[in-house]
Amino acid sequence: MQSMVILGATGSIGASTLSVIASNPETYSVYALVANTNVDKMMALCEQHRPKVAHMVDEQAAKSLQARLSPSLKIEVTTGESQLEGIVTSSSVDTVMAAIVGAAGLVPTLAAVKAGKRVLLANKESLVMSGRLFIEEMKKSGAQVLPVDSEHNAIFQALPESVQQEIGFCDLDGAGISHILLTGSGGPFLTSPLSSLPQMTPAQACKHPNWSMGRKISVDSASMMNKGLEYIEARWLFNASVEQLKVVIHPQSVIHSMVQYRDGSVIAQLGNPDMRTPIAHCMSYPQRINSGVEPLDFFKVGQLSFLEPDFTRFPCLALAIDACNQGQEATTILNAANEISVAAFLDNKIKFTDIAKVNETCLSQVAKQALNSIDDILALDVQTRAYASEWVNKI
Ligand code: NDP
Ligand code: MG
């Protein structure tokens, strides 16, 4: 029996994870559910999944959950940073699903890594912010980190087993690998006239053609910042160089990414666009379990197509690749700026096309001080958010 903590339980990845757990009750149990403010959803999840602990980061939400939960369920309700750390590092826990959205996921995810847990990593932002530190902590503690992000999970599945054991330190060249091909659908605005992009609404940006996801990552998919964050994530997870990593637009989202070998072979992972597949893969690796996902029907798929990314349409992708080449200071700044600009767009305060403008300004203007600790990273994150917010207010 694997005992699990779900960070971000009330979100989209949280729901898919709990669905896979519910399909395999003999193998997985829920030790704790963690969320921020959504008490209604947490109530429903507690009643269905009966965790030992329910943690709300927001104190008021924790009080309200405590008042509403029936004592007969015997669920401990907690709040506070040290309590959250206690949960993810508890000896009762084997596996942590890291699926809080954004920079807020960094501290608890890193705590799980430091405690040597099996960490199923959906929160790409934590790796974008703390890459080197994250990988070093992973090596020190011996934590097994498995990529949930569908592209990185696909790449992982297409790697030789020996390389799978070296996440963070892969020798791609030594394994005969020439390229990692990171695929992305191009999102809802792939073919929209460029002149229409400034008028795109949050509802249009969140309407992804293939995937159903949380609002922040949906906007990131529309701007292709998501692919940019994934590019950075892939560089760290697979120890890939600029030359080894390519982005390929594949509008159908059937191939989830590919690994190209020196001998001309390309190994791809395919499947319906449903996060329960990569989640189930991470949960059961190296075994396989039922995920509840429909098998892929090739006759319904019909065609697979591929395009080169257009950086005029997707300036955020170019910014992310550029930041990745500059280093961790730049990626931390870009991540923080993007969280502020996306939130402002979702709040109807700025236009869709302003997201890239705010991100670019922060990247060029915020001073890139050296990052030697998690505190340095968090300080740069806070500083960038303040700068980005000022800019948003000026627009
Ligand atoms: P959602 O917006 O659906 O859910 C976010 C979750 O994070 C909620 O449970 C929310 O709690 C919680 N949360 C938000 N802020 C905080 C905070 N300050 N402290 C603690 N918890 C917080 O996001 P997704 O599930 O879509 O995405 C989660 C992560 O997974 C992201 O990093 C995303 O990039 C990554 N990912 C998602 C994919 C997808 O298909 N959705 C695919 C690949 C990666 P509450 O509801 O209480 O606010
Ligand atoms: Mg992805």
TrEMBL record:
<comment type="pathway">
    <text>Isoprenoid biosynthesis; isopentenyl diphosphate biosynthesis via DXP pathway; isopentenyl diphosphate from 1-deoxy-D-xylulose 5-phosphate: step 1/6.</text>
</comment>
<feature type="binding site">
    <location>
        <position position="227"/>
    </location>
    <ligand>
        <name>1-deoxy-D-xylulose 5-phosphate</name>
    </ligand>
</feature>
<feature type="binding site">
    <location>
        <position position="230"/>
    </location>
    <ligand>
        <name>Mn(2+)</name>
    </ligand>
</feature>
<feature type="binding site">
    <location>
        <position position="151"/>
    </location>
    <ligand>
        <name>Mn(2+)</name>
    </ligand>
</feature>
<feature type="binding site">
    <location>
        <position position="150"/>
    </location>
    <ligand>
        <name>1-deoxy-D-xylulose 5-phosphate</name>
    </ligand>
</feature>
<comment type="function">
    <text>Catalyzes the NADPH-dependent rearrangement and reduction of 1-deoxy-D-xylulose-5-phosphate (DXP) to 2-C-methyl-D-erythritol 4-phosphate (MEP).</text>
</comment>
<dbReference type="Pfam" id="PF08436">
    <property type="entry name" value="DXP_redisom_C"/>
</dbReference>
<dbReference type="InterPro" id="IPR036291">
    <property type="entry name" value="NAD(P)-bd_dom_sf"/>
</dbReference>
<dbReference type="InterPro" id="IPR013644">
    <property type="entry name" value="DXP_reductoisomerase_C"/>
</dbReference>
<feature type="binding site">
    <location>
        <position position="230"/>
    </location>
    <ligand>
        <name>1-deoxy-D-xylulose 5-phosphate</name>
    </ligand>
</feature>
<dbReference type="Pfam" id="PF13288">
    <property type="entry name" value="DXPR_C"/>
</dbReference>
<feature type="binding site">
    <location>
        <position position="221"/>
    </location>
    <ligand>
        <name>1-deoxy-D-xylulose 5-phosphate</name>
    </ligand>
</feature>
<comment type="similarity">
    <text>Belongs to the DXR family.</text>
</comment>
<feature type="binding site">
    <location>
        <position position="38"/>
    </location>
    <ligand>
        <name>NADPH</name>
    </ligand>
</feature>
<feature type="binding site">
    <location>
        <position position="185"/>
    </location>
    <ligand>
        <name>1-deoxy-D-xylulose 5-phosphate</name>
    </ligand>
</feature>
<feature type="binding site">
    <location>
        <position position="226"/>
    </location>
    <ligand>
        <name>1-deoxy-D-xylulose 5-phosphate</name>
    </ligand>
</feature>
<dbReference type="InterPro" id="IPR026877">
    <property type="entry name" value="DXPR_C"/>
</dbReference>
<keyword id="KW-0464">Manganese</keyword>
<keyword id="KW-0560">Oxidoreductase</keyword>
<dbReference type="InterPro" id="IPR036169">
    <property type="entry name" value="DXPR_C_sf"/>
</dbReference>
<feature type="binding site">
    <location>
        <position position="13"/>
    </location>
    <ligand>
        <name>NADPH</name>
    </ligand>
</feature>
<feature type="binding site">
    <location>
        <position position="125"/>
    </location>
    <ligand>
        <name>NADPH</name>
    </ligand>
</feature>
<keyword id="KW-0479">Metal-binding</keyword>
<keyword id="KW-0414">Isoprene biosynthesis</keyword>
<feature type="binding site">
    <location>
        <position position="124"/>
    </location>
    <ligand>
        <name>1-deoxy-D-xylulose 5-phosphate</name>
    </ligand>
</feature>
<feature type="domain" description="1-deoxy-D-xylulose 5-phosphate reductoisomerase N-terminal">
    <location>
        <begin position="4"/>
        <end position="131"/>
    </location>
</feature>
<keyword id="KW-0521">NADP</keyword>
<dbReference type="InterPro" id="IPR003821">
    <property type="entry name" value="DXP_reductoisomerase"/>
</dbReference>
<feature type="binding site">
    <location>
        <position position="208"/>
    </location>
    <ligand>
        <name>1-deoxy-D-xylulose 5-phosphate</name>
    </ligand>
</feature>
<feature type="binding site">
    <location>
        <position position="11"/>
    </location>
    <ligand>
        <name>NADPH</name>
    </ligand>
</feature>
<dbReference type="Pfam" id="PF02670">
    <property type="entry name" value="DXP_reductoisom"/>
</dbReference>
<feature type="binding site">
    <location>
        <position position="151"/>
    </location>
    <ligand>
        <name>1-deoxy-D-xylulose 5-phosphate</name>
    </ligand>
</feature>
<feature type="domain" description="1-deoxy-D-xylulose 5-phosphate reductoisomerase C-terminal">
    <location>
        <begin position="145"/>
        <end position="238"/>
    </location>
</feature>
<feature type="binding site">
    <location>
        <position position="12"/>
    </location>
    <ligand>
        <name>NADPH</name>
    </ligand>
</feature>
<keyword id="KW-0460">Magnesium</keyword>
<dbReference type="GO" id="GO:0030604">
    <property type="term" value="F:1-deoxy-D-xylulose-5-phosphate reductoisomerase activity"/>
</dbReference>
<feature type="binding site">
    <location>
        <position position="149"/>
    </location>
    <ligand>
        <name>Mn(2+)</name>
    </ligand>
</feature>
<feature type="binding site">
    <location>
        <position position="10"/>
    </location>
    <ligand>
        <name>NADPH</name>
    </ligand>
</feature>
<feature type="binding site">
    <location>
        <position position="214"/>
    </location>
    <ligand>
        <name>NADPH</name>
    </ligand>
</feature>
<protein>
    <recommendedName>
        <fullName>1-deoxy-D-xylulose 5-phosphate reductoisomerase</fullName>
        <ecNumber>1.1.1.267</ecNumber>
    </recommendedName>
</protein>
<feature type="domain" description="DXP reductoisomerase C-terminal">
    <location>
        <begin position="270"/>
        <end position="386"/>
    </location>
</feature>
<dbReference type="InterPro" id="IPR013512">
    <property type="entry name" value="DXP_reductoisomerase_N"/>
</dbReference>
